[in-house]
Structure formats: C-alpha cells, structure tokens
C-alpha cells in the first residue's frame, strides 16, 4: 500500500490508531490508507478551529487573508497535474475533467480572495437623525464543511474559499470514498502559510460527520445526498445553527424540435455521460419533442456506443468508472428496476465485458427511451451514466413533466426561439437554467437548488451569505436623556 493520509488538526498532522483503505475504482486495489478520526479527534479539531478563530483569524486583515488565498490558488494550480492524478486515482473520474477541476478550484480561491478585503458593510440613514447606524458583515465562526466523493476539490472550493475569505475557521470532513486530495489540499494550505488551526481536517465515515455537526461548530455547509442532508439539518436544527444544503438532482434537459440538434446531442451527452453521470447536475431526464424524438434517440445511442471507457488517467478516455463499489451496485439496481418497470432499453444496461475493463467499476453508457415520468428511473437520482428519454408534445407538457420531481437543481433548454427560451426559463423550478448549453460552471455564478435539491447558494457573491452574519451598530451622538419606558422610534 502506498501513501498514508493523516488528519490535520491545529497545524499538526496526526496519524490515528484506526485507518481505512482508499480503493482505486479502476483497479479495485487499495492504493492508499487514511487515518480514521475518533470522536476525540473531531472535538480537538473543533477546539483548534475555535482557538484559531478567536486568537488569530478574526483579527487577520482582509488583505492578509486574500494573500493567503491567492497563494493557495497558485499552489493548487502549480500542483494541478499531480492533484488531478490523485483525484482520478481515488474516484475514477477522467483526468481530462479532474485537471480542469483543479484549475477551476484554484480560480475559486483566487475569486474569493478578491472579496476578503471588500466585505463592505453599509451606513443606514435612520429616522432618528442623531443616531448613526452602520451594518457590518462578520464571520460566523467555526464552519463545518462536509463534502461528497464525486468532485472532492471542486466541492470543497465552493465552501472553503468563501468561508476563509469571510474570516471563518473550518473543520473539513471529506467523503470516506475519496479523501486523498482533501488531505493534499490541507498540505498546500500549510505551505501557503495559513495559521495553525484555521483549516482542520477529520476523515472517516458518516459517524465522523455526525460528531462534527453535533459538536461546537457555528454553521454547516453540506454537499451530499438528500437523506444525509435531512439528518444533518435536523441535528443542526436542534443546535439552532445555520446550514447550507447542496443535495441531489433529477434535472430535465429539454430539447425542442427547433433546436440545433448537433449541439443538443452534445449537450445531452455532456449532461449524462460527463463525469460518468456522477454529478449532482446530471441531465438525467432528456425530454424530447416528438418531431425529433426518434432522431435524437438514434443519434445519442450511436454516440453513446462509441464512448471510450478506460483508464481514467488516460487522456483519451471519455468515461471513467463508478467511483466506488456501493455506487456501482446502486447504478446496476436502478437499471434492473427500470427494465422491470417497462422502460425500453436502447443501449448499455450492463457492465462491459472487455478484459481491459474487468477490474474497474464500469457501467456501459445506458439509455432508456419511452420512459414515463412516474417510473422510478425518472424520479430517483441514479448518480450514474443512465439516461431516461421522455417524449413530449407541447411547451406546457414539457413544463409539467420537467417540474414533476421533488428535486430542483438544474435544467437545460434547447431551442432557437428566444421567446420560448425566456418563457421556459421562467417556468423551471431549479437553481440553475442553461439555455443551449449544459454543465457550465463559473465561480461568479450562484449555484444551488430548490425543493429537495437543497437551499443556500455557493459560488458568486451569494456564497458569502452562508459564512457571514450581519451586525447592526447604532451610535447615539445627541447626548440627550430619553424616556426609558418607551421604545424610541
Ligand atoms: P452522502 O450523503 O452519502 O455523503 C456525503 C458526505 O456526508 C460524506 O462525507 C459522508 O460521510 C457524510 N455523511 C453521510 N451521512 C451523514 C450524516 N448523517 N451526518 C453527517 N455526515 C454524513 O453523499 P455521497 O454519496 O457522498 O454523494 C452523492 C450525493 O451528493 C448525490 O446525491 C449528489 O447529487 C450529491 N451532490 C450534490 C452536489 C450539489 O452541489 N448539489 C454536488 C455533488 C454531489
């Protein structure tokens, strides 16, 4: 076994007595080991974050925080190839995507560095003209950051960059299925010169997450499944601390007959086979208007069958593996249920049989057509390369099907009619709407969900809301005595 990844608490690397294995989903082999945090470790990490917040970080100037974030961005970009290789090894995502994700993550630290010394407050003119009023944005304190396995660096940057820029200290808990790059990032933060205790890392399963959320943290930012989100929001509710929830999706990607079909085909592929469909924003329901329904199915199937599966570290590979064994089993179960419920299998629907792929957790790119939106495959998040194609007639019908879901993360609309693009965008119940594109991510653009896809926003200026609290200050400069028994309005 190669590398061992340790916990990072109060600026010290700590090897714990218990450890768990990091499995390479392409080879099924253990490639690294990870220190498993105990409850006591979680408590120490929170205390270290609290001490660093009180003694150092909340007193550090925005300019100095910005400099450290810029340094972290530079180090991440400089280490981008190595970090991408590690992430692809850990979660089976193709290197052409993980490499981009490293640059994207670096860009987020850079972008939020720009805010660190620009967290303006406001001066508020009151009716009481002899009271000077100003409102400031202050850090909340110790933030618990819990992430999923599908894009450890990207998901973490959504949280860590605004949290640090706003002056919070953090305890990070990555997924037990992909922890390596998060530990590496803590190493880069140490190299960048962040003071001890500002960034802490505990690793392990959901129990570690539970200990963290029920500990003395001041807010939680969570990315993961709705079920875990519900459990975390309940725990946070008991403690009355704010939470941000970035949860799952069952996003509709809607193709009208007037769309540029060449681009729509690419957008549909990107939506469901990009990242092996293991992305919260997967366009897993493709709604296609009847005049182009058959043609879309045929074109998609023919391209899906040519998708190159292979070693995620090979630049020519287009689709990697399911990221872990439980996820592979889950995807295969959903495929079985879809078949049982009568969805028409167009292509895929099984594991590849090629010898070169036999050790990896691969699933063939899978397309079901003639799917009814009430079927399990259209309602449940598969989180894998499984597309459900649903026909529709009118715009109203498309809206009804698209919004008939408990999720609301993203949606795609393909049309050349600008009025329809606006009408449809207005009708979508989702945090993100893409028109004539899919899966564009930008640090400037707010991202998040509605309904069971969660609440709160990451990226963009809105991301700072989750990590700041407003303080209002009133200063009476009149020197007058007031009636103590009546509120002064
Ligand atoms: P998961 O909910 O099983 O785990 C996510 C993280 O939460 C892990 O670190 C896990 O250890 C921890 N955890 C699980 N239960 C917990 C509990 N009760 N208390 C505290 N911590 C707990 O999700 P996953 O399988 O790792 O990720 C896949 C899910 O993440 C999908 O639903 C996907 O849509 C979602 N996701 C959402 C976004 C987004 O931005 N909206 C992005 C990526 C992934």
Description:
With 489 residues, the protein is α/β, with parallel strands linked by helices. A seven-stranded mixed β-sheet has the order 15-16-17-14-13-18-19, sandwiched between helices. Helix 4 runs parallel beside helix 5. The radius of gyration is 24 Å and the shape is globular. The chain has helices at residues 39-55, 62-78, 80-91, 95-116, 152-165, 180-192, 206-213, 226-239, 261-273, 293-304, 325-340, 376-379, 395-403, 418-427; strands spanning 4-5, 7-9, 12-14, 19-23, 30-35, 122-124, 131-139, 142-146, 169-173, 199-201, 219-223, 243-246, 252-255, 285-289, 344-347, 366-369, 386-392, 410-414, 432-435, 454-455, 468-476. The protein has 14 helices and 21 strands. Nicotinamide-adenine-dinucleotide is lined by residues 146-150, 155, 173, 175-176, 205-206, 209-210, 213, 223-225, 228, 231-232, 246-249, 280, 381, 383, 409, 449, 454.
Helix fraction, binned, reads: 25-40%
Mean pLDDT value: 98
Largest sheet: 7 strands, mixed
Shape category? globular
SSE-based structural type: alpha/beta
Task: Provide a quick synopsis of the model.
37% of the residues lie in helices and 20% in strands. The chain is an alpha/beta fold and 489 residues long.
């Amino acid at each position: 076994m190669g590398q061992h990844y340790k916990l990072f608490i109060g600026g010290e690397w700590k090897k714990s007595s218990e450890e768990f294995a990091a499995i390479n989903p392409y080879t099924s082999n253990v490639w690294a080991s990870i220190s498993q945090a105990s409850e006591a470790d979680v408590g120490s990490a929170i205390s270290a974050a609290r001490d660093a917040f009180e003694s150092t970080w909340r007193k550090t100037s925005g300019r100095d925080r910005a400099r450290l974030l810029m340094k972290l961005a530079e180090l991440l970009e400089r280490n981008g190839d190595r970090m991408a290789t590690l992430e692809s090894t850990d979660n089976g995502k193709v290197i052409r995507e993980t490499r981009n994700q490293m640059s994207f993550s670096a860009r987020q630290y850079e972008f939020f560095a720009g805010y660190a010394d620009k967290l303006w407050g406001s001066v508020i003119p009151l009716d009481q003209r002899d009271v000077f009023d100003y409102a400031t944005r202050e850090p909340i304190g110790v933030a618990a950051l819990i992430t999923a396995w599908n894009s450890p660096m990207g998901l973490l940057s959504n949280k860590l960059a605004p949290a640090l820029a706003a002056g919070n200290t953090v305890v990070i808990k990555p997924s037990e299925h992909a922890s390596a790059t998060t530990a590496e990032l803590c190493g880069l933060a140490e190299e960048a010169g962040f003071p001890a205790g500002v960034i802490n890392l505990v690793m392990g399963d959901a129990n570690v997450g539970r200990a963290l959320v029920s500990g003395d943290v001041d807010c939680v930012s969570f990315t993961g499944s709705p079920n875990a989100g519900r459990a975390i929001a309940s725990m946070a509710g008991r403690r009355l601390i704010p939470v941000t929830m970035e949860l799952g999706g069952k996003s509709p990607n809607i193709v009208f007959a007037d769309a540029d079909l060449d681009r729509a085909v690419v957008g549909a592929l990107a939506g469901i086979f990009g990242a092996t469909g293991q992305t919260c924003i997967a366009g897993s329901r493709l709604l296609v208007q009847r005049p182009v329904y058959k043609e879309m199915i045929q074109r998609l199937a023919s391209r899906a069958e040519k998708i190159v599966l292979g070693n995620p570290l090979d630049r020519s590979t287009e689709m990697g593996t399911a990221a872990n064994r439980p996820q592979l089993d889950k995807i295969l179960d959903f495929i079985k249920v879809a078949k049982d419920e009568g969805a028409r299998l167009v292509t895929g629907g099984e594991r590849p049989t090629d010898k070169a792929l036999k050790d990896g957790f691969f699933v063939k790119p899978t397309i079901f057509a003639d799917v009814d939106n009430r079927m399990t495959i259209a309602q449940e998040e598969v989180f894998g390369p499984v597309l459900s194609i649903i026909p529709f007639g009118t715009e109203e019908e498309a809206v009804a099907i698209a919004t008939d879901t408990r999720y609301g993360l993203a949606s795609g609309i393909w049309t050349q009619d600008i009025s329809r693009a606006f009408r449809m965008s207005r009708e979508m119940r989702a945090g993100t709407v893409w028109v004539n594109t899919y899966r564009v991510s930008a640090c400037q653009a707010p991202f998040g969900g509605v309904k069971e896809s969660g609440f709160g926003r990451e990226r963009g200026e809105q991301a700072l809301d989750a990590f700041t609290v407003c303080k209002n200050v009133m200063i009476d400069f009149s020197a007058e005595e007031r009636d103590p028994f009546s509120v002064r309005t």
